[in-house]
Amino acid sequence: MNRLFHIARLGWNYKIRTSPVLGCPPYQFTIEPTNICNLQCAFCPQSDPEHRRARKRGRLGPEQFALFLRRIEESGCGNRNLNLTLDGEPLLNPDFLTFVEATVAAGRFPVFATNALLLEHEQADRLLAAGPFHASIDFASSADIFEKIRGRKGDFATVRANLIYLVRQAATHPGAHLDIHDISGYCGLNPEESLAAMRALFPAQLSQRIRFDSRQFHNFCGHLPGAEVQRGYRLCPYPWTQMAVTHDGDCVACCRDTRGRSVLGNVFRDDVMTIWNGTAYREFRRNLVRKQPEQNAACRDCDLPFKVDVTRWKPQYVLRSLVGR
Questions:
Q1: DSSP for residue 313
Q2: pLDDT digits (tens, 9 = 90+) for 66-93
Q3: Are 85 and 137 in contact (CB under 8 A)?
Q4: How many helices (H) does the chain have, and how many strands (E)?
Q5: What pLDDT band is residue 317 in, cutting at 50, 70 and 90?
Q6: Among 96, 124, 139, 319, which is least packed, fewest CB within 10 Å?
C-alpha cells in the first residue's frame, strides 16, 4: 500500500469518521525485544517496583520475531519503519542486533530507543554495519543531573564515551540517524541553556543526521507525582494508527501501555487484521470517541488527551511525524 494513501485512509477513519472498524492495517508497528531494564530512571515507570511486577519479565526470541515480520508483511502495511522498543532496554536482549539485521534484510527501517550503556564499540560497529537505522538516546548536560535521574552513579562517563564513538563513526555511515535528547529539564533546568551545555559535550562538527533536542515528558502511566491535568480533550490517534506488541506477542493499546493494561489480541496467535478489527480494539476506540478514556485500562492514568497545548497535537507535527516514519 502506498504510504501517503495509507496515511490519508487512516486520517479519514480517525479524524472524520472516527470509525471503530478500519479498512486498512496499522501504519506503525512496534515490538518489544524485552521488558527488562538495567536502569530505574525517575521519569520512567521502571522506577516503580509495582511496574516490574505488572508483567512477566522476558525476551523476544528469533523465531517469534521472524513470525512477527511475516505478520506485518502479510498485513500490507505501507510504512516500512519498524519500532524495536516498547518497555525495557532492547540491548539486554542478546538477539537485538540480529533483529536489527533481520529488519533491514526484510526491507524495513529499524527505529529504536536505548540508554546506550551497553552500546560499546563492538556493538556500535555491528549496528552501523547492519544498514540504515534511527536511534533515540537520552542524555543530560552534566553527570550530577544524569545520574540523579538515571538512578546510578558512574554511568554518565560510560554513556558519553559510547555516544562520542557512535557519532564519530556515524559520519561514514549515511544510513545512521541519531536523536540525542536532553533529559535535564526533568530536574527543572532551563531547557535552552541545558541543551546548549549538553551539545557542547560532543565534537563541534557532526553529521546533519545527528540531532540534539530537549525531551518532553508526560504522565502516560500515572507514574509521575504532581502531574496537572489540563482542560480539554483530544482524540488519541494511536489506536487508529499503530499496533504495539510485547515480547510475548500481546497487542497492547499503544507504545505507552508498557504495563500491558489493555491487551487487545496476540499477534503470535492471530493475524494483524483479525486483531486490528477485533471486538477488543473496536470497543477500545469507541470509548475514546465517547470521550470516556477512563473506560480503557491503558488510558485511565494517561494525561496526553488532556494536554491540549503540547507540540505533538499540532497538525504540522502529526503530519511530519507520520510522513517521516
A1: G
A2: 999 999 999 988 789 999 999 999 999 9
A3: no
A4: 12, 9
A5: low
A6: 319
Q: For cell 525517575, what's the residue?
A: 42
C-alpha cell of 22?
478500519
45, 47, 49, 55 alpha-carbon torsion, rounded to 10°: 40
Secondary-structure breakdown of the chain: helix, strand, coil percentages, each rounded to the nearest 5: 40, 15, 45
Measure Cα distances from 294 to 65, 70, 303 in Å. 33, 34, 11
What is the Cβ-side half-sphere exposure of residue 159, based on CA atoms within 13 angstroms? 24
pLDDT in tens, 108-167: 999 999 999 999 999 999 999 999 999 999 999 999 999 999 878 889 999 999 999 999
308 within 8 A of 232, measured Cβ to Cβ: yes
